[in-house]
Each structure stands twice: as C-alpha cells, then as structure tokens.
Amino acid sequence: MFQKIKVYLSLTKAQRRARSKAIGHANRQALKQYFTGDGAQRRIGSFLWRVLIHSSGWLAKTILMASWAVIAGLLVGPENQTFLAMLRDWMIATPFDQVALQTHAAVLSGFLMCVQLSVFLGVGQALLGVLDGADKEARALFNGKLSHEV
Is residue 127 domain-resident? Predict the structure, then answer.
C-alpha cells in the first residue's frame, strides 16, 4: 500500500495526468466490452445478481448501524435523559394516530435512505469487480512504460 503511494507521489503532474488518462481509458473500454458484444446478456444478468447480493449485504449492515446509532443516541448518548423525557412528553401530548403516523414516516424515511445507500454501495462494489482487472493491467502497463523511460 505504502509502495503504491510512494510511486504515485514520485510522479510528475504530467505523468499523473497521463496515468489517470490511461487508467480511465482502460476502465471505459472494460465497461464497453463487458456490457456489449457476445454474451453481454449473461454478463449483465450476473452483474445485476452481484448488485443484488452486495446491496442486500450492505442493506443489512446499514440498517443495523442506523438502528444501533439511534439506540445509542437515546440510551447512552450525552443528555439521554433529556431526550427520553422529551420523547415521552411528545408521545403523551400527541394523539396516538399522529404518533403512529409520524413514527412510521420517520422509520420509512430512514429505511429508504438505507436502501439508497446500499444500492449505491452494491453497484460500486459490483463495478469494482468488473473494472479491477483492467485497472491493474493499465497500471502495470503504465509502470512498465515509465520504467523503460527512466
């Protein structure tokens, strides 16, 4: 890891720009090749399956983290007695149907944010699997050209 950072920092601005351009071109070509051509339907299906699997995992993680963050904030966080007293007073002063409606809206909103985040992370993780080989190959090719120039 530190070796990669050391190599990157030793490059000039022009070399960094050329490296970034080469890696970007390789990634675009890899995406184009993966999602078009012979066998693309099968690859798209497997890509969507991986997105579903990764997103499901991320959804479980984000829901667990969000729920534990709420619990920690209410039960363990600073001034938790004040928050619990305010929540209790609100629940007593507000009619039950309004409490249920507002609680449902808050929980649904949090769940939808977790779903959006998990889909975003799942797509990113699946794309990383598609682009990883092209990225490594482009980096190796660029480093090989760079070593021949020196």
Answer: yes
pLDDT tens, position by position, 83-121: 889 989 999 999 999 999 999 999 999 999 999 999 999
CA angle (108 as vertex; 87, 67 as ends), nearest 5: 60
Q: Is residue 4 part of a domain?
A: no
**Range list of β-strands (E), 34-92:** none
**How far is the CA of 79 from the CAs of 24, 66, 82, 85, 86, in angstroms?**
49, 19, 5, 10, 11
Measured CA to CA, the distance from residue 24 to residue 129 in angstroms comes to 16
**Contact assessment for residue 74 and residue 84, using Cβ atoms and an 8 Å cutoff:** yes
Residue 8 lies in a domain: no
Measured at the CA of 128, the angle between CA 18 and CA 11, to 5 degrees, comes to: 25
pTM confidence score: 0.77
